[in-house]
Design brief:
heterodimer, A: 177 residues, alpha+beta, five-stranded antiparallel β-sheet, 6 strands, B: 117 residues, alpha/beta, five-stranded mixed β-sheet
């Protein structure tokens, strides 16, 4: 497994350097004013992963005129974060809740996904592309988040849950009518 | 979401449709393993023509089956991926690991910049 994954991970696009762990969050003001915000609580159930990414896509489309690939990237990143919260944070205990915050800023989208599950002892290790604690999981979740979003911030401690902040900078449209 | 498995000659054809995420990964993995365990066909082809979304949970199932099949000397191929799904397969290194048919229309990077409504 390690060999296969190591081979896969030489693909340049997904090579995550150690110093990219906790990609710097935007400077204060980088995102501009907060223009819209939605907060959601989702039961930690597999079917809600699709709901989370679909709601995110709907939220994004209401604020920005995006191409399909950009929307797809945002959906994958959200899917990974919510799946992580359910599978790793809560061990698929559907009595728990995943919290989601969608923020539309002037210059970008911020998605916060948090759980009050088991937490992560070593965030740096958890974000390594081939690291996984579970069989049949790729360890690609954080790699995808890093690849598809401009900023990824993870806050966690054992027993204290995990909070993931994803930011995608979206330029003002120059061709606005 | 729907999946089916058919044996055609020496190849197992695994078709899956819809959004392939953690919700469908488990049942799909079980169905595939059952078929792969019961057949002498060596090769595995994933028909992704109905896949509208895939994330690392879905890719985990593909990679697990790839390892099984290739360790027995079989070939693994993915056909019918949409441009968006193909891009995810590229980024995760799958296109170098197994045979993945290129979609007809690959999205233009330049046309991908976001714009504000």
């Amino acid at each position: 497994m390690a060999e296969v994954m190591a081979d896969m991970m030489t693909d340049t696009t997904i090579n995550i350097m150690a110093d990219k762990v906790n990609k710097a969050m935007p400077e204060r003001g980088e995102l501009g004013n907060l223009e819209n915000e939605v907060r959601l609580e989702l039961a930690a159930r597999g079917e809600n992963v699709a709901l989370a990414r679909t709601l995110t896509a709907a939220f994004v489309v209401a604020g920005w005129d995006l191409t399909l690939p950009v929307l797809e990237e945002i959906k994958v990143a959200v899917s990974e974060a919510v799946s992580n919260a359910i599978i790793h944070g809560y061990g698929e205990d559907s009595a728990q809740y995943v919290h989601m915050r969608l923020c539309c800023y002037q210059r970008g989208l911020l998605v916060e996904i948090s759980d009050s599950g088991v937490g992560i002892a070593d965030i740096r290790q958890a974000m390594e592309p081939d690291y996984t604690t579970k069989q049949e999981h790729l360890g690609l979740g954080f790699a995808f988040m890093n690849t598809f979003m401009d900023r990824v911030r993870v806050e966690s401690a054992p027993g204290a849950g995990t909070r993931v902040e994803l930011v995608r900078l979206l330029d003002a449209c120059e061709c606005e009518a | 979401m729907s999946f089916s498995v058919q044996i055609k000659g020496n190849t197992v054809w695994a078709k899956i449709g819809g959004e392939v995420d953690m919700q469908v990964a488990g049942p799909w993995r079980e169905a595939l393993d059952q078929q792969l365990g019961a057949t002498l066909a060596r090769n595995l082809t994933f028909d992704f023509s109905g896949v509208s979304f895939i994330d690392s949970s879905g890719l985990g199932v593909v990679l697990g089956r790839y390892k099984k099949v290739s360790s027995r000397g079989g070939r693994v191929r993915i056909v019918g991926a949409s441009p968006q799904v193909y891009r995810i397969l590229q980024l995760s290194g799958f296109c170098r690991l197994m045979e993945v048919d290129e979609p007809a229309n690959i999205p233009d990077r330049a046309a991908m910049a976001g714009g504000r409504r």
